[in-house]
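#struct-pred
JK: can someone run the complex with A1CAB? inputs below
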Amino acid sequence: MYLRDKKICFIGAGSMAEAILAGMFNQKIITPRNVSITNRANRFRLNELFTKFGVVADADYREQSIQEADILILAMKPKDVGSALSELKHLTNPRQLIVSVVAGITTDFITNILGHSAPVIRTMPNTSATIGLSATAISSGITATDEHILIAKEIFESIGSVVIVEENQLDAVTGVSGSGPAYIYLLVEAMQKGAVQAGLPAGMSRELILQTIIGAAEMLKETGEDPAVLREKVTSPGGTTQAGLEVLRSLGFEQALVACILRATERSKELGAILSESKT
Ligand SMILES: NC(=O)C1=CN([C@@H]2O[C@H](COP(=O)(O)OP(=O)(O)OC[C@H]3O[C@@H](n4cnc5c(N)ncnc54)[C@H](OP(=O)(O)O)[C@@H]3O)[C@@H](O)[C@H]2O)C=CC1
Ligand SMILES: O=C(O)[C@@H]1CCC=N1
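RT: done, structure tokens with the ligand placed:
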């Protein structure tokens, strides 16, 4: 219970902030009166989050909320981090823990803008946080201690599973599990198209595909088997799976996924580099 009595303030009130809020309240690891949420301008959105969670979400209390927080969660787009921190740094202090969910942005970048030694934890959750099933990786900047990692772990365990990584692995995590839900959704979209073209009704296709993905994921988890072994068990020689997989391979399915992850990883590095360059 590292979060008990800690005051948390979100800077950024978008979909990731909402997903984390929902997880923390579902797991009852913090009370609404200890949480405030701020954004740049959208008062309607703040009101929506106040109505939904009962958190302090009043634009007029933005400065006070940031100043009084023990933990600041940065949840704005990468392009907005520099300007947001430059504008708000005078409200922060070295005793606050800074937790960032922003893709590509390094702990060094954040520390340099703040200009003081507040500990910074960089994380990468994903949108399955909304239903408590995020895969989140967390890493610490140079001034963060084991206790800070434990605090961040408690926050992100409320929205799913957590692994601790070195910061230089976080771009790859972003390419794999941060963006990963989108790859799976594209797979479902394509499978649905195929199912309908093969003659199944759309609604039934969706149900069959979802259960197939859930079943395959649970098989991987529960058996601990290598995916190649499980794949081979589905694939009868000369059967339907073999025929389907041959088409996937001839169209470069595996290379496409590997290239996708490498490009998303590279993009995460680019997002950080663009901002670092624009600062110098
Ligand atoms: N979506 C995803 O799948 C994932 C996203 N992330 C990361 O989460 C972060 C947030 O993403 P998401 O929630 O989708 O973004 P949204 O666009 O939904 O929300 C961004 C929020 O940031 C606020 N904001 C912008 N500028 C400032 C500022 N200067 N001061 C205070 N608040 C500001 C916006 O306020 P206003 O509306 O008033 O402008 C808005 O509330 C991103 O950095 C992304 O990389 C991480 C993992 C997964
Ligand atoms: O697309 C993005 O940049 C963010 C980071 C991971 C998922 N969404």
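RT: quick notes.
The first helix runs from residue 15 to 26.
The pocket of A1CAB (ligand 2) is lined by residues 103, 174, 178-179 (CB under 6 Å).
JK: thanks, will look after standup
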